[in-house]
Amino acid sequence: MKPAIVFDLDGTLIDSVPDLAAAVNLTLTARGLPELDLTTIIGFVGNGLPKLVERVMTHGGVDMGLHSKLTRITLDNYMRAPTARTVLYAGVRDMLEAFTTSGNALGICTNKPEAAARQVLDALDLSRFFAVVVGGDTLAQRKPDPAPLLHVFEQLGAGPRFYVGDSEVDAETAQRAGVPFALFTEGYRKSPVASLPHQLAYADSGTLPALIADALTDPATR
């Protein structure tokens, strides 16, 4: 049986930080606060949009009582142009085509709100590859809680499993779910590769189908 493969989205399939940064900076400037540079915002990414806004607010000394309001504003800013600056990482489309042609069941497990994730997937012509999409607000839990990832695999059906992501959150999610993990090394990771639990690491998405096929011959990853 072909393995089911679930992907994180931001930092794994797409480089979306430029659009996230634009949304954050619109929120900041509307309050008379200075914009943040891309590197700073990359450092705040992970655990979903509410946590991103929380980290931005902490950095700027903004009253946390405004968190819900500013999260909604930032999401609205983002949803107006979620793919204006977002690009696929090199080799992603060919990789997804290869998995699909081979008969692999594919899904998405992201902390991005589900509506935003689906809008991005549609805009980038990626929706056709994924049978299941779970966002950070689809269930009561979000990564690194393993529930969303396990939910995607349950929807995809029986068979070997592999999770693909780029971050500390993804590595922890896979570990807690008991699922083999492939680490994309060119995303938003903040820690050294060696410090994250993973079964394989890759920098070129085009190599992933062969790497996963090889990894699944190892009894430890079945």
UniProtKB/TrEMBL annotation:
Top-level taxon of the source organism: Bacteria
Pathway(s) it belongs to: Organic acid metabolism; glycolate biosynthesis; glycolate from 2-phosphoglycolate: step 1/1
Binding site for Mg(2+): 8, 10, 166
Keyword match Cell division: no
Molecular function per GO: phosphoglycolate phosphatase activity
Enzyme class: hydrolase
Catalytic activity: 2-phosphoglycolate + H2O = glycolate + phosphate
Coiled-coil ranges per UniProt: none
Active site: 8 (nucleophile)
Keyword Glycosyltransferase found: no
Assigned EC number: 3.1.3.18
Cofactor(s), names only, from the UniProt record: Mg(2+)
Keywords: Carbohydrate metabolism, Hydrolase, Magnesium, Metal-binding
InterPro entries: HAD-like_hydrolase_sf, HAD-like_sf, HAD-SF_hydro_IA, HAD_2, HAD_sf, PGP-like_dom2, PGPase_prok
HAMAP family membership: GPH_hydrolase_bact (MF_00495)
Protein task: Specifically catalyzes the dephosphorylation of 2-phosphoglycolate. Is involved in the dissimilation of the intracellular 2-phosphoglycolate formed during the DNA repair of 3'-phosphoglycolate ends, a major class of DNA lesions induced by oxidative stress.
Family from the record: Belongs to the HAD-like hydrolase superfamily. CbbY/CbbZ/Gph/YieH family.
UniProt-listed PANTHER family: PHOSPHOGLYCOLATE PHOSPHATASE
Name of the protein in its database record: Phosphoglycolate phosphatase
Lineage of source species: Bacteria, Pseudomonadati, Pseudomonadota, Alphaproteobacteria, Rhodobacterales
Gene: gph
